[in-house]
Every structure is written in C-alpha cells, then in structure tokens.
Amino acid sequence: MTLYYRPIAQTDPARPAAALPLAGTWAWFTHVEELSRGRAPRVIPADAVPSQMLTRLTAPRAPIAGLTLDRPRIMGILNLTPDSFSDGGAFNTPEAAMAQARRMLDEGAHILDLGGESTRPGAAEVPVEQEIARTAPVIKAIRAAGIDTPISIDTRKAPVARAALAAGAGLINDVSAFAFDPAMQGLAAETDVPVCLMHAQGLPETMQDNPDYADALLDVYDSLETSVSVAEAAGIPREKILVDPGIGFGKRDPHNMALIGRISLFHALGCPILLGVSRKASIGRIANIPDPHGRGPASAAIGLWALGQGVQMLRVHDTQVHRQMIALWRAAAEGQA
Q: Is 83's pLDDT higher than 60?
C-alpha cells in the first residue's frame, strides 16, 4: 500500500516549540494527514512520518529564477495572444505589452509569465514561428528597457522556449510537463534554467470533454512525481523544479476543489508549489461571477487559502489585488503592521 503524507499546515502566531517548518516557508505543522487509496485518511503526529519524507516536507526550497521562497511570490500573467479566455487581444501589441508589464511590476509582481499560445479549454495549437514572434520581441523589449525582473516563458515547445531564453527569459513554464515536446527537457538541462512542471489531462482542444480520475488528488500527485523523476533523469535538479497541480486543465470543479483543499500534499514532492487559479471558470461558477474580469477578489480568496498551506507562488492576472491580500494577510499573521 502506497502512503502519502500531507502536512496539516498552520500559520497561527502561537507556534508550539515542537512545530516543524513547512518547506522553509512561513507555515508550520505538528501533524500530518496520512492518505492512501481505498482507506480513510488518518491524522498522525509529524514524528511518525518516515525520515526521508519528513526531510522533503521541512527542507527550505532553493531560490527559483533568483527569487527566494521564504515569502509569498506573485507571478504576473502577460498573455500575448488574441484568444486567451480572460484578456485575449488586450496586450498583443508591443506597446500594450510593455505598458502591462510595467503596470504589473509597479503593482507588486515578482516575476512575469509571458505566453504566446492560449491553453484555455478548446484552444487550437499555435505554429512555432507565430508563438516566437509573439513572445521573443516583447522579452527583448523588456530587457532593453533595463527591467531585470525574472521572466518566465509559458510554452510547450522547445524552439519557443529557446528563443525566449535567448531574449532574456529565465524560467520555462510548461503546462504539459515536457509531454508535448520531449526536446524541452533536454533544453532545460542544457541551459540550466529552472522549470515549472504542470499537470494536465489531455490537450487543450479536448481536455474538458471527459476528464476522469480514480482519485484526483492522488492521481495528480503520482503524475507530478513521475514528471519530476523524468526531469531529474534528464539532468534537471529537483531544486530547479516548480510543480503546479494544473487547476482547470482536464479537471472538473470537484477535481479542482479536491486539489486546492489538500494542496499541501504537493510539498511532499520536495519542490516549491505554484498555483494558478486566477479568473478561471471554476471560480466563476462557484462564486457566480460570469465576467472573468470580475473574478480578481475571488481568485485572491483561493490564493489566501493556498498561502495558508505554504504555497510559495501564485500566478495571477490581478497583481494589485493579490499584493494587497498578501500584505494584509502577513500583517495579521505576524501581528504587526
């Protein structure tokens, strides 16, 4: 029987002396939820967890793209596409893209995530040349303007990632976890850049047709564990890997909520966690907000839960809302302004 260990994260200022740090973050834990397939979960003390797993749960994560992960980080989304579900077409001119990049940085983004291919449900694949033309010039322009903030390239394709890295990007965010283009793992190993591996079931064109899981939480965990192991075998150190459970990518609302509710399980992979729920349709359905542009506060509510679970990075559209949320949450948690 395979056992899984989910730290029961806490951030209360009254921290017991025996509490353990959660992945070097602001969160801590004293107990763990032991999970397995076909058996009810049970809560056990942290000192009952196997030592190797306990090390994974407690060890501080290495900086990613120059960002330390001992405080919450905001990844600002910059879609350079005409058909993204929330802001398609809004920033796909060089002038609009640069203005949006500056705005997000002014509002508190720590890293920018640029993408030239929409991966919303039903989206069609974009040719490599077109995706490069949408992304590489904007990255070059950002760097030419003297902006040294880390940049992530959101792509499934090695040629697009290579062009973006040459232009000044420093992280590869692959929603297919290298499954779409196997050459991606070789590129990441060759260039020694950090990567974000996301879980997705199926391709964007069809992923929402009939997503199916025996146990969404454990199935996604197992898949990401395999992806991380494959990346390590290709020469990418675990300390250079972010993991993302892929909310909305081949998942229905119950699957999404199962992942978010117990997202601290993914600390057991020994990697920092990125969560991207910003403005997604599931938020609109649950909160009854039809317009994606009105989902910023609801997205931040999920982000607040995730921070309480030690999630290190939030991928968001509404940078100002999330910066405010983080500032007030930290002040309250620390009991000081």
A: no
